[in-house]
Structures are given as structure tokens and as C-alpha cells.
Design a protein that fits this description.
Helix content is 0%, strand content 50%. By secondary structure, it is mainly beta. Strands 2, 4, 5, 6, 9, 10 and 11 form a 7-stranded mixed β-sheet that branches. A 4-stranded antiparallel β-sheet has the order 1-3-8-7, with no helix packed on it.
Length: 116
């Protein structure tokens, strides 16, 4: 069973940066779609950023210009560079890997807290 392991979360002050990493536990024969989602307290999980197998990137409007998603296929990894963090970015960030519409995986989540 493929597993995704996230790291890089933490407690930062507004305006600071964090870099999240997500590593897949095994090599995948074909390049998947990758994404980052977050879930704030009392809210549903929402898409933050995604990068398709073709390299097409989408961001939620709230993070455009501040967050950057990237991938390293050789390392089975996806990253999220988060700059100029705001309190409203607080939440649990989940890594996603999608092979097909019915075959996808989630990481366990990493907490990001932005507070002064």
C-alpha cells in the first residue's frame, strides 16, 4: 500500500515562510497528479495547489503569488513553498497523489499554525 509522508509544518508568525514536503513510499510506474489541500478548524478540506502529470499548475485564489507547488518525479516528491503566511492559512495540510479518478492517496497531514 502506497503511503504519503508529509513534513515541514509548524508554528510561525505572520509574514514568515514554511516549506512542506511530501514523499511517496514507493516508486510509481507512471507520473501522477499531485496536490496540496488544507482543512481549517470547523471547515471542509479545500484545494490549495495542484500540479498535473503534464505539469499544469493551479492555485486557490487565496494563495496565488505567495505559495509555489513543485515536484521531483525522480524522488516521488511534491513540495509547497509558502511565503508571506497569514493567520487564515492556518490548518492541517494534506498531500494528495492521484493516479486515476478512483485510485488516489492521502497523507496523514501536517499542522501549519500562523499566529503572532
Amino acid at each position: 500500500q502506497l503511503q504519503l509522508v508529509e513534513s515541514g509544518g509548524g508554528l510561525v508568525q505572520p509574514g514568515e515562510s514554511l516549506r512542506l514536503s511530501c514523499l511517496a513510499s514507493e516508486r510509481i510506474s507512471r507520473i501522477p497528479d499531485r496536490g496540496w489541500y488544507r482543512q481549517a478548524p470547523g471547515k471542509q478540506r479545500e484545494l490549495v495547489a495542484r500540479i498535473s502529470r503534464a505539469g499544469i499548475i493551479d492555485y486557490d485564489d487565496s494563495v496565488k503569488g505567495r505559495f509555489t507547488i513543485s515536484r521531483d518525479n525522480a524522488r516521488n516528491s511534491v513540495y509547497l513553498q509558502m511565503n508571506s503566511l497569514k493567520p487564515e492559512d492556518t490548518g492541517i495540510y494534506y498531500c494528495n497523489l492521484r493516479l486515476t479518478d478512483t485510485e488516489y492517496y492521502w497523507g496523514q497531514g501536517t499542522q501549519v499554525t500562523v499566529s503572532s
